[in-house]
Amino acid sequence: MKIIAGLGYDDRLPNDLPEHYNSLICGEQRLIAELEFRAGIVSPEGSQVARTVAYLKALKTADEGKRFYSQSLLVDPMASAESLLAWRDWAILHGWQHDSRSADKGRMADLAAVEGGFETVGSSLGERIYALLPRLNLLASSVTSLELHHPRFSWPALYQNLFDSLESAGVSVTEVCMAISPQAPADCDLGKLQRALSDGYQGALGLQQDGTLKLFSAGSEQLATEYAIREANDSTLIISRGGHHCLAAAIGQLGGNNTGLGDLSTFRAPNQLLLLMLQCAWQTPSAEVLLQYLSLPAGRFGRLRRKLARRFRDLPGYDRNHWQSEIDEFVSAALADGTEQDEASLRSAIDEWLPMCLCPSDDAMPIELAISLTDRVARYWNAMLSISEQEQAKTIFSAAYAASDSVSQALREWPESDISKIQLNRLITMVLSVGNSCLRSSRETSCFDVVSNAEVTQLRTRSISKITWINPEISNLIEVPPLSQEELSGIPLAPAPSQQAILEQQALARSHAPLLAAEQSLTLIATRSNPELLKLQIGSLVDADTWPPLEDAILSNKGIGASAQPVNDTPLPEAQRWWSLDCPIPVPRSAESYSSLATLALKPHEYVLKYAAQIREGAIESLSADVRLKGNLAHHLIEAWINQHPWTGQPIARSDISAWLDCQLPGMIRQIALPLAQPGMQVEQLKFQQQMLEAMDRLLQAMVAAKVIRVEPECQLEYDDKLGKLVGTMDIFCEFDDGCFAIIDLKWGGYNRYREELKAGRPLQLATYAHIAEGNGIRALADAGYFILSRAELLCNSALLFTTATVVEPEDPTSLKRTWQQFDSVLRWRIDQLNAGQIEVTYGCATPDDDSTPPSDTVDLVSMEESARKSGNRSFKATYKAVDTWRNLTGNIKEH
Prior knowledge:
By secondary structure, this protein is α/β, with parallel strands linked by helices.
């Protein structure tokens, strides 16, 4: 068998390869693996991340506090181990510790002291080659020849020794350098560039801008790849080292076949599962991370987690009691469907896949916990791999399993009993390349070809009329570690500066292959601005220090070959005030709350869409410490205080409230308001705590001064009204010794809004709650008001009962009973409209008309809408929410 070897051949190869009978095409890594197999040597199975952790253990064992790496090891163990392991592997590849001329000079003496404790010695590329050399005599019967597509001196020195030893063992080693001559006509811009590169010309070329050579810069790989795909045809070659996920997305959008493209995106859901599960286990995880994990379309119990995600958006924290009803409902449904698991094992499995806040702190995670979570993910992907029948899915699942298994191996080698957040993140980042799905067996990618490295261009047998190269650069060389000349002198095969310069020139010459192979056009697109040797050479030849933006070229249609045509001006339809249906709309529902009644009266179109049509708001939104979140947290704090401190009517010391908040607030934030617990929110959290201290002190003082004898938080009442069943939850329900009651509704903000409601005589929420409470047979209402938590201020129409309240007198004499009667009349008017199939679209672009005015002596809806329009507040949520990039990348846009 013949082996064909070339630098850069380990990565993606072109589709149209030469037909070689009984031969293999190998790059640097695969060549060693193939020779090992035929020499009877088992290739090492450990992952690079496990090697790094093993080397970290060896570094710690050898560390005496005076090593050159001691301080770095204290600051960042994983990063230090990764860098030093790269030094070690490079040194061994160049003869250190294995050549008789090797010497431990300078810092290399400290690294030599580490070797005795390194348990995975023999796993580096250099060590594998040294282990292979004595067994090369076993290869003569299975390997007849080795054909090198690049000169020997361009390979690392140890490979050159290997080639010499192969020849001594009877294997023919030949150099077949596949030089490409200029393919474009000499009189075009591309032809001039090709001949300048071929002849070594170094001056500026006189180009005529004929469109055969295009140089662009782009702001993102997404734009560059979409342009490349749109411009490609059946004789196009696209070169992209790391943007295959962008290419696959662009091909899919255009209806092409992206089978065979390796996906290097770390945002693919399988690659996110392990990372998110580990991040969820910290004592105070990120709210965004929790939401991403719950809505991730990967992992067990996806349907349950999506339901919990909806609940989490309302109360963004982790409190198992808040989730228990959803879990119980899911378990009941699963058992009814005949699941093979019994209830106990099913609940246990659910607990395993909801690993929130398991860690005792945010500083370090017990290594046993980290291993348990990692093994759980690995078992899941292994199970998915065994039951999947799609080849593409198998590749993705296999890569995800490999990533999880590699992390598990590394954690088992971890030298301590726990691991910090920074080190765990470093470890996962190192293994992400293992978790990305690589090349698949099926290679078709629509009608064009995609490769990773420039060197493989010479393998393509079909002619290439057009080449698009995203981020043109020379192939990655094995960089020389930052060692001194004295230290390098102890490494026998280390290249001298002159030799290193020759290797760089050889790499530059190899990168010319695609530039010379294009017959008609060459497009180079750079998305990175860092200086690079190939870009600098091309820039000097075409006399262009900067490349024009691709965005500008697309907008102006200059030199991109795209057809442009005017777009017909299509005006949007005029805004409508009314929607008409041919059928009645069922209303009211079996039970209505104040919020649904307010929506029916003020915004009937939203009521119809939400309740009748069952159209829910989407979930593409980010979590933040906004007014709603603070209001929810404040409600729960006040409820918790009252439940833990039964009301006695006696004054309460402010210091007692402060001490209670110090104790209760951190835990409550984790349960209800995680965004407030994130880094950078400490000042906001302290401000909130001070506001709550003031609000609770003032609220309790007000109730003491009013001589309240009983207080019930979150009092739930219902009443069978003529409209139907009305339900309401009163934030604070107060009772007095004469049997009367009062209602206090807690609001975080909206001070001016609620003052205006009281002044205009339309506190609809208070009137609704009073109507429900009185309908339950409770004695007369004494008073009601809004308590604005952010200002610690109680707003009422009078101060007869709550003497500390701010009085907001109504413009016209009124009462809550009269306000309810007016509200009730508006609701019946709206119900009649919906029964007739007429839906009014309020607070939009269309202004009110004659039919928008409700009957006399009711709530003045028109003036309320006009007032909101003048103030710029339309009082309904924006139609379009900010798009969450992560949710789009994972494809989890819609609720299921």
